[in-house]
Every structure is written in structure tokens, then in C-alpha cells.
Design a protein that fits this description.
Main location: membrane
CATH topology of the largest domain: MetI-like fold
Largest sheet: none
Low-confidence stretches: 485-501
Strand content: under 5%
Number of helices: 23
Protein name: ABC transporter permease
Membrane topology: Multi-pass membrane protein
Order of helices and strands: HHHHHHHHHHHHHHHHHHHHHHH
Number of strands: 0
CATH superfamily of the largest domain: MetI-like
Helix content: over 70%
Mean pLDDT: 86
Structural class: mainly alpha
Keywords: Cell membrane, Membrane, Transmembrane, Transmembrane helix, Transport
CATH architecture of the largest domain: Orthogonal Bundle
Subcellular location: Cell membrane
Number of domains: 2
Length: 501
């Protein structure tokens, strides 16, 4: 790779790669009449039906409870790991935890814990622990070292952290935890699509029944839930919130798992089939090669195709759309643009893809649209906030001229860096789209779990983790070459404005 890459060159390379992959993408409508489906959905969405408020309310409370408990456990685990970030073992564990999507964790945990509150909480907590560990470690590293230097020699690591580091980084940690609660609510809602009693479960139920009015009510309440986080969530009341969430989850009914499920999972289910049959290492390599050739490579290729096209479309939406939230560009339409971006970034990619599947049928198109709209809204929102803060001369133009000749050039480097940062996240989300029937890696993982071939599922999860970790490493390398190096923690903390809508 060249020592120095220009930002336009990076953008052109990624755009060319995405366009080159379009012929390999399945973008068909699968015999659906999208306009008829859209009209049916529109009629229901324009007349939201809150008649099933009891079921919706129960799912709403469960969504909040799973999110709060999952984020809390993940944050505590990440905080415990962060001071030891220098250890290669801790860094490797963090990468492994966060590279597996919450839905994949849930599918595995359900084999041990059943469809239970513990499975949902841990499915959120495990990847979030890896994320929190990395971000907290970088916050600790960036803190002023001078207070720690005045402590007496021989002060233990924990005391140094509690008295010299934690007070300095606490405001940043608090803001990041609040942002992660918003992410946790999205993760919690999506867990309903695989059986947990959150909003996704009710949304799936109403769509299967063709009750679009009730589905509309769910989506309205969900957007309000996300948009009002600053009003109802206060860290000062965190203990009360967590106690209430834990009590609610403890009351949820769930089918019990048989005794010895964990032991069987560790000693039988995830042990490669050749080893269980006593074939030894001689049978392991052919078995592994067959999985990688017939499922791993096709699934990885489809994941990369969808992810790269979605990344390019994400950039196009973000770059063209960030002016919609800038007053001197959009004028009175700014509020409408702001509302549109808030709604799009509030819905998880998985939920948006589920909605698009009802319109376009099973193909790569719903996944690409969902990934691009959600991530494009996030980046567009961030760029719009930064554009509003740019000082402009009094005689600066307005409208499209201001966007094209002043704001876009000044924010282009930031735009490319944010797209590169979201690259790994988009690929991670692309893999899980397979649970909806799209032929990415998640499709093969879901099939393996359904067939109780958890050893195969584990191999495919490793492939998924390798792709997302590889994209993260490549993203860092490219950002460093183009002179836009800001650590992931800095970019991720840039999402802080999202918590205030």
C-alpha cells in the first residue's frame, strides 16, 4: 500500500469496487409487485392501531429491560478488562467477542439457556463487553498521566485507576454508555425476531398476520422510545432502572432447559464431527475443507458483495444528505430532513431489511437498502452536526451552492474516515442478514443451528469474525495512509450527539 493516499483516491477506489460487484448481486424482486405491497403497508401505517396495546406495551418494557441489563453487564465486563488492554490475550478476547453479532450469540446461547432472559442479556453483553473494553482502554490511555505520577511508589493498579484515571475519564465514559444504551435498544428489539419477547417478536407476528396498523403502532412507539432517551434515562437513577429491569426479566416465563445442557454443548455439540466419531485429525481437514468450500466461501463472497455495495450507497446517501440538516442549506425543510435521518438511524438494519423483504421479496436488495439507509443516516447526521458548527463568513452563499463549494470540500476527509469506520460494522451486519433468508454467512449459520450442527456453525462464525476483523484492520491502515488517523474510540465517541437525537 502506498505511504500516502489522498481522500478522493480512497473514495474512488471503494466506489469502483462497489460498482464492480453490482453484476454479482441478486437485486431481483422475486416476482413481487412492490407497489401493491407498498400500498397495503402504507394504508396500515397511515392508520396505526394501538388496540393490542397490552401486548405491545409488554414487548416495549421487555425491550428496555434486555437493553439496560445487557449494556450494564457489558460495560462492567469491559471496564474490568480495560486496565489490562496491554495484554495480547485481552485484546484478542475483545476482538473475538465484538466480531460476533448479538443475534449469532443469541442462537448459540439458546442451545444452552433456552429462550430465556439470560440468553438475551448475555447475547447483548458479550459483544458489548469487547466494544467497551476497547473504548474504555483508549479513554484511559488518552487521560492526563500527571495525577497518576504523584501517587506513592508501589500503588497497585486498581488504586491508580480508581483515584487517578477514573475521575478524568468519567464524563466521556458516561456519554459513551448512554450512546450504547441506544444501540442496546436496537439490539434488544432485533432479538425478538428469533423468539425473545421484545418488539421484534410482536412486529414479526403482526406482519405475518397482515396487521399493518398494529405494526405501525409498534414502529411509532419504538421511534419515540429511541428519541426520548435523554428524557427518561438518567444515570443518577441507574440503580433503580437496573433493579426494575432485572425484576421484570425475572418474571418472564420461559421453557426450562434440561440438565447438563452446558456440559453437552462444550463437550459434544461444538466438538467437530470427525473427532466425535473417533476419526482423529485425519478426518478433520477434509471435514473443515468441505464446510469452507461449500458454505464458508459462498457465504463470505455474498457477505462481501452486499457489504461493499451497501458501503458505497451509504456514502452516497450520507454525502448527498447531510445538507438536509443544515439550516443555511435546507432552509425550512431542515426539520423534515432531521426527522427523516432520526427515523432511519433509529431502526436497526435488520428490522429495516425485514420491512423491505415484505416489499421486494427475498434477494440482496432489501439488505443493501437497509444497510445503506441506516448507516447513511448516521453518517449524514454526524456530518450535518459538524457542518452546522463550521464558522462561515457573512457573505457566504446558501442552499446547494454552500453545500457544494464550501461544506462538502471541508468535510470530505471526515466523511471518508467515517465511511471507513462504518465499513467493519456494515460487514458485521451484512453477515447476520442471512437469518432473513439472504445468502450471506448468516444463512448458513442459521441452517447449521437449525440442523443442530453447532460444530459447523462455530466454524462459520470464525469466518464471520475473520471478515469483520480484517475489514477493521484494513480500515485502520487506509485511514493512517490518508492522514486521517483518529482512533476508533474517537470516531465512535463522535456518535455521542446521536443520544440527544
Amino acid at each position: 500500500m502506498p505511504e500516502r493516499l489522498s481522500r478522493p483516491a480512497v473514495a474512488l477506489i471503494f466506489a469502483a469496487l462497489g460498482l464492480a460487484l453490482v453484476p454479482f448481486a441478486d437485486l431481483g424482486w422475486a416476482g413481487h409487485d412492490p407497489w401493491a405491497a407498498l400500498m397495503r403497508m402504507a394504508r396500515g401505517f397511515l392508520a396505526p392501531d394501538f388496540g393490542a396495546i397490552e401486548e405491545i406495551g409488554t414487548a416495549l418494557v421487555s425491550t428496555v429491560a434486555f437493553a439496560l441489563c445487557g449494556v450494564a453487564v457489558g460495560a462492567l465486563a469491559g471496564l474490568a478488562l480495560a486496565p489490562f488492554w496491554a495484554s495480547a490475550l485481552v485484546r484478542g478476547l475483545s476482538v473475538a467477542l465484538r466480531s460476533v453479532h448479538e443475534l449469532f450469540w443469541a442462537l448459540l446461547l439458546m442451545q444452552v439457556l433456552g429462550i430465556s432472559p439470560a440468553a438475551g442479556v448475555l447475547a447483548i453483553a458479550l459483544p458489548y463487553a469487547g466494544i467497551f473494553a476497547k473504548v474504555f482502554a483508549e479513554q484511559i490511555e488518552e487521560a492526563d498521566p500527571r495525577p497518576a505520577q504523584v501517587l506513592p511508589p508501589g500503588t497497585d493498579l486498581l488504586s491508580r485507576f480508581l483515584w487517578a484515571r477514573l475521575p478524568l475519564i468519567w464524563p466521556a465514559m458516561r456519554s459513551y454508555v448512554l450512546y450504547r444504551v441506544e444501540c442496546g435498544l436496537r439490539s434488544s428489539a432485533v432479538l425478538g425476531f428469533i423468539g425473545l419477547p421484545t418488539l421484534g417478536f410482536q412486529l414479526d407476528t403482526f406482519f405475518r398476520q397482515g396487521d399493518y396498523g398494529a405494526a405501525s403502532a409498534i414502529m411509532i412507539l419504538y421511534v419515540l422510545l429511541i428519541a426520548t432517551i435523554p428524557l427518561w434515562l438518567r444515570l443518577r437513577a441507574a440503580v433503580l432502572w437496573l433493579a426494575g429491569a432485572a425484576a421484570w426479566l425475572a418474571m418472564l416465563d420461559h421453557p426450562p432447559m434440561g440438565s447438563g445442557a452446558l456440559w453437552r454443548f462444550l463437550t459434544v455439540d461444538i466438538v467437530p464431527a470427525p473427532l466425535r466419531r473417533g476419526e482423529g485429525p485425519d478426518g478433520l481437514l477434509p471435514w473443515l475443507g468441505d464446510i469452507l468450500w461449500t458454505q464458508g466461501l459462498p457465504g463470505a463472497w455474498a457477505t462481501i458483495v452486499v457489504g461493499q455495495i451497501a458501503l458505497v450507497l451509504t456514502g452516497a446517501i450520507a454525502f448527498a444528505g447531510f445538507g438536509l440538516v443544515v439550516g443555511r442549506v435546507a432552509g425550512r425543510a431542515r426539520l423534515l430532513g432531521h426527522l427523516g435521518l432520526v427515523v432511519l438511524r433509529s431502526f436497526p438494519e435488520y428490522m429495516l431489511a425485514y420491512l423491505f423483504l415484505q416489499v421486494f421479496g427475498p434477494s440482496m436488495l432489501p439488505a443493501i437498502l437497509a444497510l445503506a439507509l441506516h448507516n447513511g443516516a448516521i453518517i449524514g447526521h454526524l456530518l450535518g452536526r459538524e457542518a452546522e458548527a463550521i464558522p462561515l463568513r457573512r457573505d457566504a452563499p446558501q442552499g446547494v451552492t454552500l453545500w457544494a463549494w464550501e461544506l462538502a470540500p471541508r468535510l470530505f476527509g471526515r466523511f471518508v474516515a467515517l465511511c471507513l469506520y462504518r465499513w467493519e460494522i456494515i460487514l458485521r451486519e451484512t453477515a447476520v442478514m442471512g437469518l432473513l433468508g439472504i445468502a450471506t454467512l448468516g444463512f448458513f449459520i442459521d441452517s447449521a443451528v437449525a440442523e443442530l450442527r453447532l460444530d459447523r456453525a462455530l466454524v462459520l462464525l470464525v469466518v464471520t469474525g475473520a471478515i469483520t476483523a480484517g475489514a477493521d484492520a484494513a480500515s485502520r491502515a487506509v485511514r493512517s495512509r490518508m492522514g486521517a488517523v483518529r482512533e476508533v474510540s474517537t470516531l465512535d465517541r463522535a456518535l455521542k450527539p446521536l443520544e440527544t437525537g
